[in-house]
Amino acid sequence: MIFAAAGYNVTLFDVDPGQLSKAESSLKTTLQQYEEGGYLRGNTTAAEQVKLVSYSSSLEECLQGAIYVQECVPENIDLKKKVFCQLDSLATDQMIMASSSSCLPASSFTESLKHRENMLVAHPINPPYFVPLVELIPAPWTKPEVLTTVRSIMEKVGQSPVTLRRESLGFALNRIQYAAINECWNMYQTGLLSAEDIDKVCYDGLGMRYAFIGPLETMHLNADGEFHEASSAIEIARTT
């Protein structure tokens, strides 16, 4: 829906024709609901966006003329290896192939492939239609120009990409998220706060602030522009 809203022709592929039928029905209904509720993205109507999406149970047919492929299979390393091997056998030298993986690095399923330089992770955050962040994570062999192109595509379709310079377990969002969850769980286990109050700290405090400015900008503004003072305070807190 995101790519169709930006005017791209999109083809969905699945090995199960039944899933394609469900997807087609769901797409029409969802876009109509978004249009009625004022949430529809893009400058065209829901009906016009629906016409840009086609469906195919043939991977070869699906990839014809494709410039960008977004894989969305379950988080299973063997399945991703199988899918990317199939993509590799049908890809052109210009085709970019990205995985939606939320934790598996591209190097774990693209190493032996011919077109591996055109492969990376482009991790959207659920629900991507309303949460725009996309993490771009290259494998060691991903071409820099591929990253640049994917970032440009994501910006054109209205997403908000961030580019990691190298692979890192947990990528970026989950590294921050897991650190926060671990600290919240620690405060609950030690009896410092109730579960309800821990959640309140986030939705009535940090969440509201971080929706507008991030933690580094917060520290900068909260320390008279002296970022190193805030950093020092964190180091002191860690040692006490």
Task: Summarize this structure as a short list of keywords or feature phrases.
3 domains; five-stranded mixed beta sheet; L-gulonate 3-dehydrogenase activity; EC 1.1.1.45; 7 strands; NAD+ binding; Rossmann fold; two-stranded parallel sheet; alpha/beta; 240 residues; globular; N-(1-d-carboxylethyl)-l-norvaline Dehydrogenase, domain 2
Q: On the 0-100 scale, what is the average pLDDT?
A: 93
CATH architecture of the largest domain: 3-Layer(aba) Sandwich
CATH class type of the largest domain = Alpha Beta
Arrangement of strands in the largest sheet: 3-4-5-6-7
SSE series? HEHHEHEHEHEEHEHHHH
Query: How far is the N terminus from the C terminus?
Result: 49 Å
Strand content: 5-15%
- Which homologous superfamily in CATH is the superfamily of the largest domain? NAD(P)-binding Rossmann-like Domain
State the helical fraction.
40-55%
Number of helices: 11
| Largest pleated sheet | 5 strands, mixed
Shape: globular
- Which parts are unreliable, with pLDDT below 50 for 5 consecutive residues or more? none
Overall number of strands: 7
Task: Assign the CATH topology of the largest domain.
Answer: Rossmann fold
Global Rg = 21 Å
Structural class: alpha/beta
Secondary structure elements and pairings:
Layout: H1 2-5, E1 10-13, H2 17-37, H3 46-51, E2 53-56, H4 59-63, E3 68-71, H5 77-90, E4 96-99, H6 107-110, E5 119-124, E6 133-138, H7 144-156, E7 160-163, H8 173-189, H9 195-210, H10 215-222, H11 227-239
Parallel strand pairs: 1-2, 3-4, 4-5, 6-7
Antiparallel strand pairs: 5-6
